[in-house]
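Worked example 2:
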Amino acid sequence: MISCAFNHKPVSFSGNRVAVYKTLQKLTQSRKGIAGRLSTNTEQSLTNMPKPSLRGVFDNYAVDVSRLSMHFPGGFPVALVRKVKRLLNEDHWDIDDALPQKDAMLTLLRALLIAKSNTLPSVGSDGKGSLSASWIVGKNRLTLNCYNGDEISFVLGRERPNGEIERAAGITKVQRLNEILSAYDPEIWFR
């Protein structure tokens, strides 16, 4: 006795070997046909699938910047939004990369406000959800990677009066950014 998956009634195939063989053959062919149609439909769906819209993500960032725009120097918010928009350009964004998270953008905005930056940074992303800001003035370099939860990693190289480059790197909370950078005369990046 075999219980049929379609009607759940026991079916006896004793003495019906030919019928059983043909029935199994038909089931196998129909499964192959369904599987073929599924894979073809799946391939067509993936091929015709539109790129994810980054417009909504960008709009969220633009709203955050506009809320804080009064605290930045004139023209700074517009230029920052333009840079983030360029970063999130759908034609250049790799679909496998994670979008910068909203909290990472908020961390970046807080860092810019705390540092009292009058200089617009270059903006980038690591493809894992963070946003980065970097400043280069001659041999003096500063990169901030902004993450969720007000966490920042930083890497810097600061030229000293004797020509040596002092380097530092670390992870901190955005609230301590000025305290940590103060040893490196950060005005060179932010003014």
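Residues 1-9, 16-21, 37-52 have pLDDT under 50 and may be disordered. Residues 13 and 20 are 7 Å apart (CA to CA).
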